[in-house]
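pasting for ref
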Amino acid sequence: MAKLLLKLQRYFRRRPVRFFTLLALYLAAGSLVFLHSGFSGEPTVPGSPRSPAAAEGPGLPYLGVMQLSRGFKAAATMPAGGRRHGPWFKSTSKEPADRGKSRDNGGARSRALRGRSGREKEEDRARYIGCYEDNTRQRTLRGMSFFDYKKMTVFRCQDNCAERGYLYAGLEFGAECYCGHKIQASNASESECNMECKGERSNTCGGINRLSIYRLELAQESARRYGSAIFRGCFRRPENVSIALPASQLMLNMSVDKCVDFCTEKEFPLAALAGTTCRCGFPSTLFPLHEREDEQLCAHKCAAEEFESCGSAEFLLVYQTQVQDNRCMDRRFLPSRAKQLVALASFPGAGNTWARHLIELATGFYTGSYYFDGSLYNKGFKGERDHWRSGRTICIKTHESGQKEIESFDSAILLIRNPYKALMAEFNRKYGGHIGFAAHAHWKGKEWPEFVANYAPWWATHTLDWLRYGKKVLVVHFEDLKRDLFVQLQRMVALLGVTACEDRLLCVEGQKDGNFKRSGLRKLEYDPYTPEMRKVISGYIRTVDAALKLRNLSGVPEDYLPR
């Protein structure tokens, strides 16, 4: 065997051209086998186009191999008996697995008819209402909303809206889902709802400023209870209460549910209980919700619920309903090219994505990125696709820390977070995605110690480099942003050179979490940091603290290190 290998080696050493020719043929054969297996294993999606031109969405380029990978993922997740429906549907009838296989791929009109025939079969589960006009300034459905520019389906939108107790679910632009209790727009032509769903090309998901709206037939009336209303606190009655909270109703049998139901029906994000009067409105300069009172001042029993408090005429008990405050939801690209490049710089895991969400809501302009993250683009960060020097975005996300990269920017917002929290957040992102979690085996294995050894020094050098090479740097601590969002956001917006009215910033406070908040339910039951790790990280914290104070800044927050 050894002699044979030696002869082959001598043969190809003398004739390198033949060697590379054989290598090329081998790679070509392997590629053909892979492509053949890919196409033969691709699931049959009713009405899905095969050609690149047909696969393109509006304004989006053909994705090539990504289109194939989407097909394989759909095959892995699709149940054998067809599409599953959540428990909130009334009917238990099953949908045929081969529904729509013989449909044609005609124009906009045929797609609308095709989607309508599918909707009629689901009428006992979620009834299709029609195609409606929509406006970015004044939404037709004013409840919760979310976007997914890759995997949006009709069922996913319906399911999310139904779980939160909404009556209507609407889909727009093939990828946007809106929920609400009331339709506040006029009908549009059915042919105008002509865009296929990004994750389900056999169905229609609205159009440009057009909503395909469904009425959700809930299995139980209790599903419409607003148990997820957020308690905001006890507040003194504002002056000019009829202007601050314009909608009101006398309720002799007052309860939290009744007041929240009333304000939700009236499409207001705030429900304020004032004894036997329920008031509704928006956070505003007249009623900013910044000065909370002692909750005992609102501890007056409700007439209909013995164990609930309903406030009084002077002290209001305030809840945030599920109605989305749309005063800060419109976003667009800059109307003219930006004269300066502003960085939103942070160490990975320091809350950069959350800060981008806040900045977009506060300014009304998209943020860009030094990199491209498809998952962020699919969740609504449309500036993600632009080149970072395009000048169309209000600021640029970056984790870079070299002198050359830093000096490319004219100014920067430097976001700093407690390294113990930032390292764990980035480790979770690396092994579990933007809102997922690393597995227990990763924390207990070699991955975590190696990660800390490589990333902990970077946490310090990142901040030190930006303080040293940055031209105009505004330092914002993640902890301060969480604790006093309104004030910190004002500082950030001022650096960006945008005038944001106070009502818009108050709207941001009510929408602050966004879609990229990691759930706190899966916290580690043990401390992953060893004494050796803590000793090293503490040294880095002291170094950064000294560097901040050297520039007449406040230093790191007290909870970074025991004082």
